[in-house]
Design goal:
single chain, alpha+beta, Maltose phosphorylase, domain 3, 8 helices
Length: about 260
């Protein structure tokens, strides 16, 4: 594929962060976009490929179809552009994220166990909280559920890490664009509390999210953003904010909706 958007965005970030600066070169990298559909292309020309027929398919697709056939259609193994919107979220507007997410949900079959955690993060950010919870369960229970993959030969360590990503970056809203720590917490209907801690620039930050509030506590001075507002927490102090409940937006269409599990 030419001009994979995730690859090019990460290359841009590295070029701009280089000590001598390569900003002009970074600006030359192509970020594929389909003006007619109003969505970014996973790679150059992706939205012009023929659509895949999702009727009566056996999954994973990669076990029943040759890669050359899959790569020539609008079918996605795992959330690639969605990953770009997580790691490079500041490169997309909110409307672009919404359109991109809806477009690629209908084409992503999650043949990789690494896909669901990333889809959970963007689903949570865009208000599809129940869908995000389903993707969290898919990642967290990968080695436990009957009828699927099991941990008999070992754990899917990347998927285990993905469950943490779904929780902390999804429902905790953690981001670190341009080296700045930020949170935008929100819980799905089936979760009533989420707590985690991070080590950030010499300080241990503890975050506790409930239905109506979020509390930040630290053993050292720390600065971050909460819902876009700069926050300072001093050593051995805590700060509490009210969290306004948000509606659970309907999930975009998916070729294979995740099975519902309770976490």
């Amino acid at each position: 594929m030419d001009d994979n958007i995730y690859t090019n965005l990460m290359a841009q970030r590295n070029l701009r962060a280089a000590p001598n600066g390569f900003s002009k070169l970074a600006d030359c990298l192509n970020i594929p976009y389909d003006e007619g559909r109003g969505v970014h292309e996973q790679s150059a020309g992706f939205t012009r490929l023929p659509e895949w027929d999702f009727g009566d398919q056996d999954y994973p697709l990669m076990l029943g179809h040759h890669y050359l056939n899959l790569y020539r259609k609008q079918v996605v193994k795992q959330a690639d552009l969605v990953l770009a919107m997580m790691t490079n979220g500041d490169a997309f507007t909110l409307d672009e994220k919404r359109r991109n997410f809806a477009y690629y949900e209908a084409r992503t079959v999650r043949d990789s166990s690494l896909s669901a955690p990333i889809q959970a993060v963007l689903a949570a950010e865009l208000g599809h909280l129940s869908l995000a919870h389903d993707y969290l369960a898919e990642a967290a229970l990968l080695d436990l559920r009957r009828g699927g993959e099991s941990g008999g030969d070992g754990l899917h360590i990347a998927a285990c890490a993905g469950a943490w990503i779904a929780l902390v970056m999804g429902f905790g809203g953690l981001r670190d664009h341009d080296g700045e720590l930020s949170f935008a917490p929100r819980l799905p209907p089936l979760l009533t509390r989420l707590a985690f801690r991070l080590h950030w620039r010499g300080a241990d930050l503890r975050v506790t999210i409930t239905r109506g509030s979020v509390t930040y506590a630290s053993d050292g001075d720390i600065t971050f953003r909460h819902e876009g507002k700069e926050i300072h927490v001093r050593a051995d102090e805590q700060t509490r904010f009210t969290v306004d409940p948000i509606g659970d937006a309907p999930a975009p269409p998916s070729p294979r909706p995740p099975k519902r599990h309770t976490v």
